[in-house]
């Protein structure tokens, strides 16, 4: 950390900074510039609130952090790529992984048709919400545990692993009984008690980026999970909120490429929420793969216009099938693989 | 709701929209423009997911919602101002209410000194965090129930009512044993299960706006609480996230004035989080009052540079006292009142 | 400037940074932390592109600038408030200054009625666009030089000074023949050739903040003007673009208060563009004054619903009159003055 | 356009809206909902300022535009893809086009080395700034006409066509003497007089998206050029400004895919400005191609760490060569072509 003093800061003010550093067993190294004094902080670890505390001291203009505030999620700490195993699927390896399914589990028929359809076309995991966060209290909010049971039945029939959202710490045990991967939704990215609760389980966690979360805050949220012992975190970029309203969110593929550099964790892209429009899902899926994503999570519904949620951004099975063929071609061009099942294996 | 068809939409596509509306007991009214057909939706209520479902139909370009999606929080539904009573304090009436105290409860001494100091200078409620959401897992996260006990002790000694944050549904009972007002933090504005849990209590709720929440989403979050029966919601503007990094957040005073028009609920402003810098707190506090806020919530610490959290945005007691004098002058200029206690009453 | 090396940066890479600094006559001071080397840059001035050049070197992680990149606009350079004189009006002194008038000059009758109306109610400058930047090529774009002539006539009849926009360097001479203050619009805040052209005149410049401009970029735009010799720059906050769409822009009053601290230049607030809704103009005008603005620029139209541009955000003369009374009360509460003319002086 | 009245709007207020529409030769069609009246506007064209004018009328809550405000740039108006021809290169056809070169023209040697290097590796156009907009008045701002001469010399030696920025209307003739394509920079996207000036020439225009421009505003800026007669507009996505500061801008690939649907104009992507970091340029270049871009514009410098501007985001020739190989593979996977020259042709 660097402490920048105001021009004209007094010796007493500088000494107060040095004293304060001393109470944390840190040392300050003065550097006298033309206009002002800058103090380099030596020693470790830097407490999380140090910058704010020093900025409250008289004579201090600002503090600048130099090292990333996360460790466990950082590639510096762990240079090799993490590969997360879910049943017999590896996420973060050379093969791309596609997760697909409806926004919400609505009925047995809807779910099984979708599960079989996406499996035939090459998906490896089935997504589907049993507990749904909705902006309006008057919208459909999922089937709850009945939805989890249907997901388990779909897994049994198709062999697909399951990823589904958990919304509150108290639900972690029941969701954990059914799911293979816990999904933490964008609105819950900074629900720290929930992060810690899944951090104490031994199941992989798909951590969606919050709508207004910086990349650093996203990796700190991963750190919350990992600090509890669970290192199987899969990051998921799903679009951020910006001034542009022509699309539901602004899909930030810069973040996909940058996070692969800053962290060892696998990164999945969600073009359905990232765009909000079904006709933008195929081009942006391919773009996410080209940017370096380790896979996709895509909303698919056999009948999108009758979906109880997110119909406008769901692909039909036919469109999903076409996308998988193109995704395979792009993956191969990049030296990675993605294997749509041959239809004959069904 | 208005359904805008694409130019060249076929009669079959238009009929499909009309049929779908029929399944919700709604009617469509066609209007044939120069270039395209527009369908007005008649009947009520409009289901929350209708727009998305219709946008998934072939031939539909977009849907436009005409009425606000919230009811209970809306001034149309409830034209008179709501006044929330907390002990003997009224929030939302002609008198402005100031809530003050430390970011976190750190110790008995710190809390009692602050409580007495802010009471002397005219605060009516004591704020203080016992459970703190922190971006980093390595930061100080509050004293928990011990902090709640200290708050209760401070209330007993000063007569100040208490407002403190609750972070998860399971904590609502314990926090409710101590606090007078539940605070829902910005990161939890869309933690719907938490909203519903406080909505089932009979204590007032201070609902902070999320960092990336639109005004509509904020009022929908209030609707979640109110739909459970608890109508005592106090809105709190605390800054939104924008591209500007010279301040911690962008304090949105447009929102204060607009929400007073859209809703009957009282609105409190939080210039400490809204700016992130103690020296901006006084001018922006006055600005919030001038924009129509019903009160302020301000971080005050007897020794900001030793605060375990948010020191950089905390006022000293002296600065808080000066602010209260100015706030009183501005309130009076606007025909409202704010009464700093005469120091002699202590 | 601080240069942060990557962990594991080699001595050769560090030497390359030091060599590069040497070519600019700067010195580097090494500081060996636990994990990485940090290089403090000593000497001045720091060339504007230095950070980018160093970040292209191998082994460099990032650079952090410590001093503000502007000088002439900085309060460090010029601690006392600048007061800009326009005819007999002082902007930036204790008395607040209100500029008012229509968005566009539309006709002689409209302009003269407005000018007389706002003068009677206490405005000191008349605003009005002769050249209008419009998002659509098909919108009304102003009367051009004829509009300037009407502004001059209005000045002659009312004694009000004039502020009007200049859109391109080639128009500076003709606009300068008529106006008292050049207005640089938000879209042109980084039209550097235009900034330099008005910087070579001896007339005050009202510099609006760009929709997506940081405070630093805004002050750098002022620096462009001042570097040409013209030090009479008046800053104008008019709202920034954010994700919130319920208002036209997000009026950033944090910026008003912060700029008063960072710079010696006067700051005017434009609540008409800052909110986009006439009914939000009064509360946000008062808020801007409370935040420390040195005055207001407000759109007023005798007949807003027949305005050729920006009708939705224009006040009627009656509403403007009421606002001026309230503004006077708030100004006095803050120890500043604002003097609506007594109506009898007309 | 739809006019939404407030609940309780009076018949007189409704009639006032209808009368006002009549003055524009438009008709209003009333639709009486449960809570309020909605008025559909029939007739065409809708004047650009109509919405704002109507919103100033008493009783009107808001207006909603239904049709896009641009025509010439719209795919509805012109369903087939526009292909822009620059010398013997086609932009917008099946073959992708890569433009490459330094941010600024710095010297004859730098430019010729780069031009030959990028030509050998498959670039079809040479980019390079002779006039540079810079945030700071103290930064290097280009060689001016001497830079244009060097670009012309480089064209003669390599056969590459030239694209270079023009910053102000008065410079259009001189830049037009040298360049093959006018570039309009992001800061000038709404410099309407400049747009019109290049709109009166017969040379193609590369129109960069503004940092805070919506897709609609960007297409309206294209409309400004096209309305003057010049239909050869090439759109260029270069990143938007958001809250994320880990990258220079947020590269909006949603916009690339959406604009291909809304408009017939070719779209080029600029990953150098879109990311600001050279190591993110290759993955995001590939992503842009996968999202449907018709080509790339990339900063390449033989010696990025000695570049006078934008060194941190410039590729070396070696990295550019590798990128071209990968880009070719991705293009082929998508059924498009991109042909790096065989090195032997040099």
Give your account of this protein's structure:
Four copies of one chain form a homotetramer. By secondary structure, chain A is α/β, with parallel strands linked by helices. Chain A has helices spanning 11-23, 50-55, 108-120, 145-158, 172-178, 192-199, 215-227, 253-262, 271-275, 281-291, 317-333, and strands spanning 2-5, 27-32, 37-42, 60-64, 84-86, 89-91, 97-101, 125-127, 161-165, 181-184, 205-208, 233-237, 267-269, 295-299. The N and C termini of chain A lie far apart (59 Å). Chains in contact: A-B, A-C, A-D, B-C, B-D, C-D.
Task: Give a quick summary of the entry.
Chain A has 346 residues and is an alpha/beta fold.
Which helices and strands, and how do they pair?
The structure is a homotetramer of 346-residue chains.
Chain A: E1 2-5, H1 11-23, E2 27-32, E3 37-42, H2 50-55, E4 60-64, E5 84-86, E6 89-91, E7 97-101, H3 108-120, E8 125-127, H4 145-158, E9 161-165, H5 172-178, E10 181-184, H6 192-199, E11 205-208, H7 215-227, E12 233-237, H8 253-262, E13 267-269, H9 271-275, H10 281-291, E14 295-299, H11 317-333
Parallel strand pairs in A: 7-8, 7-14, 8-9, 9-10, 10-11, 11-12, 12-13
Antiparallel strand pairs in A: 1-3, 1-4, 2-3, 5-6
Helix pairs in contact in A: 3-4, 6-7, 10-11
Question: Which key features would you list for this structure?
Answer:
homotetramer, 346 residues, alpha/beta, 8-stranded parallel sheet, 11 helices
Q: Largest interface here, residues on each chain?
A: A-B, 54 and 54 residues
Mean pLDDT of chain A: 93
Strand content of chain A: 15-25%
The major beta sheet of chain A can be summarized as: 8 strands, parallel
SS content category of chain A: alpha/beta
Question: What is the H/E string of chain A?
Answer: EHEEHEEEEHEHEHEHEHEHEHHEH
Distance between the termini of chain A: 59 Å
The poorly predicted ranges of chain A are none
Number of helices of chain A: 11
Shape of chain A: elongated
Q: From the alpha-carbon coordinates, what is the Rg of chain A to the nearest angstrom?
A: 23 Å
Let me know the number of strands of chain A.
14
What spatial order of strands do you see in the largest sheet of chain A?
Answer: 13-12-11-10-9-8-7-14
What is the helix content of chain A?
A: 25-40%
Oligomer: homotetramer
């Amino acid at each position: 950390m660097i402490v920048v003093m105001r021009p004209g800061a007094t010796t007493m003010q500088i000494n107060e900074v040095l004293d304060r550093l001393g109470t944390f067993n840190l040392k300050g190294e003065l550097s006298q510039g033309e206009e002002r004094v800058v103090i380099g902080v030596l020693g470790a670890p830097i407490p999380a609130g140090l910058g704010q505390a020093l900025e409250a001291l008289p004579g201090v203009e600002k503090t600048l952090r130099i090292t990333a505030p996360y460790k466990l999620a950082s590639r510096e700490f762990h240079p090799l790529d993490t590969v997360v195993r879910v049943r017999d699927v590896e996420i973060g390896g050379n093969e791309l992984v596609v997760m697909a399914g409806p926004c919400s589990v609505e009925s047995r028929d809807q779910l099984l048709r979708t599960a079989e359809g996406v499996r035939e076309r090459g998906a490896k995991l089935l997504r589907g919400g049993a507990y749904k966060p909705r902006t309006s209290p008057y919208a459909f909010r999922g089937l709850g545990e009945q939805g989890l049971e249907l997901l388990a039945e779909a897994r049994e029939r198709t062999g697909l692993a399951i990823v589904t959202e958990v919304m509150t710490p108290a639900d972690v045990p029941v969701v954990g009984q059914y799911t293979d991967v816990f999904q933490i939704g964008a609105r819950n990215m900074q629900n720290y008690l929930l992060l810690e609760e899944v951090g104490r389980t031994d199941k992989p966690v798909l951590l969606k980026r919050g709508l207004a979360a910086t990349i650093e805050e996203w990796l700190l949220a991963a750190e919350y999970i990992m600090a509890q012992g669970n290192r199987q975190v899969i990051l998921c970029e799903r679009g951020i909120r910006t001034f542009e309203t022509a699309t539901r969110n602004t899909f930030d593929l810069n973040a996909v490429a940058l996070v692969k550099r800053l962290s060892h964790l696998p990164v999945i892209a969600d073009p359905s929420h990232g765009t909000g429009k079904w006709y933008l899902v195929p081009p942006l899926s391919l773009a996410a793969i080209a940017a370096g994503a380790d896979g996709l999570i895509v909303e698919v519904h056999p009948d999108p216009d009758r979906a109880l949620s997110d119909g406008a951004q769901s692909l039909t099975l036919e469109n999903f099938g076409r996308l998988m063929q193109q995704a395979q071609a792009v993956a191969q061009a990049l030296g990675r693989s993605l294997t749509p099942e041959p239809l004959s294996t069904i």
